[in-house]
Specification:
Blueprint (H helix, E strand, L loop, with lengths): L1 H26 L6 E3 L5 E7 L4 H16 L3 E7 L5 H15 L3 H9 L7 H10 L4 H8 L2 H16 L7 E4 L2 E4 L4 H15 L1
Parallel strand pairs: 2-3
Antiparallel strand pairs: 1-3, 2-4, 4-5
Length: 194
């Protein structure tokens, strides 16, 4: 019994350490697209894929949450897992951030119905007012590839295998949630940050 309790305790400690290491990887967000308050006191991370129907359903609640919480910095961790066009779209999202037009591009992509493709991605970029030649150059940059690789490592460390996946403070939430649950976790994390 003592040995079993020690093993259970060890497993729990190792799991907590794994999650903490994953959260530290997530917080390395230089170059990731940001919305909301760029200097917000609380950061919400979303692992997202532009071909994910659940991510698209979460878009309106997230925009609602950002409108109601002016202290939240929202970081999109581009996590293309559903198709090759997801990879292209993720690269375009990171490149749109470089031009300061991510929010417009993201809104175009999240409200697009159907599977995205090269044509719809470039149409969304054009509608968002992006310089398409610069966008293509930034999409193909080693920096963009490195940001996506970093996101994949963070997702693996946190056992996030699908989209959406949220990290709010120390809370990891796989799957889509409603605005009430999202706000409740934000409020809890604010209280814990003190």
């Amino acid at each position: 019994e003592v040995l079993r309790d020690a093993l259970v305790s060890l497993a729990a400690r190792e799991e907590a350490e794994r999650v903490q290491a994953g959260i530290m990887l997530v917080r390395n967000d230089d170059g990731d697209p940001v919305m909301g308050n760029p200097n917000g006191s609380l950061t919400v991370y979303e692992f997202s894929d532009y071909n994910c129907g659940y991510c698209k359903r979460m878009f309106a609640p997230i925009m609602q949450m950002l409108a109601a919480n002016d202290d939240v910095r929202f970081v999109v961790k581009e996590f293309p897992i559903l198709s090759q066009s997801s990879v292209t779209a993720a690269k375009a999202g990171i490149a749109a951030q470089k031009q300061g037009q991510f929010k417009s591009f993201h809104a175009e992509m999240m409200t697009y119905r159907g599977q995205v493709n090269d044509v719809s991605i470039m149409q969304a970029a054009g509608a968002a007012g992006l310089d398409l030649a610069q966008l293509k150059q930034d999409m193909d940059s080693p920096e963009t590839t490195a940001i996506i690789a970093r996101t994949r490592s963070a997702a693996a460390a946190l056992n996030i295998n699908g989209t959406p996946g949220l990290v709010i403070g120390g809370t990891v939430m796989p799957g889509a949630i409603g605005i009430e649950e999202l706000q409740a976790v934000i409020d809890k994390e604010r209280t814990e940050q003190g």
